[in-house]
Structure formats: structure tokens, C-alpha cells
Amino acid sequence: MESRYNIYVAGEVVEGEQVAQVREKMRALFKSSDEALDKLFSGREQLVKRACDKATALKYKQAMERA
Fold first, then answer.
1. Contact predicate 30/67, CB 8 Å
2. Is residue 52 within a helix (H) or strand (E), and if so which, with residue range?
3. Helix axes 54-66, 19-30, angle to 10 degrees
4. Under 8 Å CB-to-CB from 55, ≥6 apart: which residues?
5. What is the pTM for the complete model shown?
6. Contact present, 11 and 44 (Cβ < 8 Å)
7. What end-to-end distance do the CA atoms of the chain give, in Å?
8. Which residues, 6 or more positions from 51, have their beta carbon under 8 angstroms from its beta carbon?
9. What pLDDT is stored for residue 11 in this prediction?
10. Radius of gyration over every alpha carbon of the chain, rounded to an integer in angstroms
11. In degrees to the nearest 10, what's the CA dihedral of 10, 12, 15, 19?
12. If exposure means fewest CB atoms within 10 Å of the residue's CB, which of 1, 6, 39, 56 is most exposed?
């Protein structure tokens, strides 16, 4: 059986990045509302995608790292 992965956002911005710019990139990536973005940037872990395969998990990881 293939492993399944949950994707979480840590709720923090990587050092050296501007929160406003990252928010806008994440808004485009997830097509999110202000309320959803407030949760993602709350400083707490938030579940983004549940039980996906490894290839999908890696795509999410790479996309969020670019954002």
C-alpha cells in the first residue's frame, strides 16, 4: 500500500521574505480568500491537503517553497 501524506503550512514566513508578498503568492497558489489566508498566516500549523500521494505532496512542497 502506498503511503499517504498530509500537507501542512507552518504559519510562518521564511526569514528574509516579506509577509505581504508571500500572502499574495499564496493567494494565487491556493485561490484563497482573506479569511483563509489569515488562518494560513496565523503562526499555527494549518492542514492544507489531506491524504495525498508522494508526487502530489512534493508538488505542494515545491509550489509553497517558491511562493
1. no
2. strand 46-52
3. 140
4. none
5. 0.78
6. yes
7. 32
8. 4, 5, 6
9. 78
10. 12
11. 140
12. 1
Handedness of CA 14, 18, 23, 28 (dihedral sign): negative
Cα 16-22-26 angle, rounded to 5 deg: 150
> Which stretch of DSSP H or E encloses residue 9?
strand 5-9
Between the CA of residue 49 and those of 17, 52, 57, what are the distances in Å? Answer: 24, 7, 8
Backbone angles phi, psi at 51, to 5 degrees: 55, 50
Q: Between vectors from CA 31 to CA 25 and to CA 22, what angle results, nearest 5°?
A: 15
Query: pLDDT means per 10 residues in the chain (67 residues)?
Result: 91 87 91 91 91 95 90
Instruction: Name the DSSP class of 11.
Output: S
What pLDDT is stored for residue 10 in this prediction?
86
Q: Cα–Cα distance between 54 and 21 in angstroms, integer?
A: 28
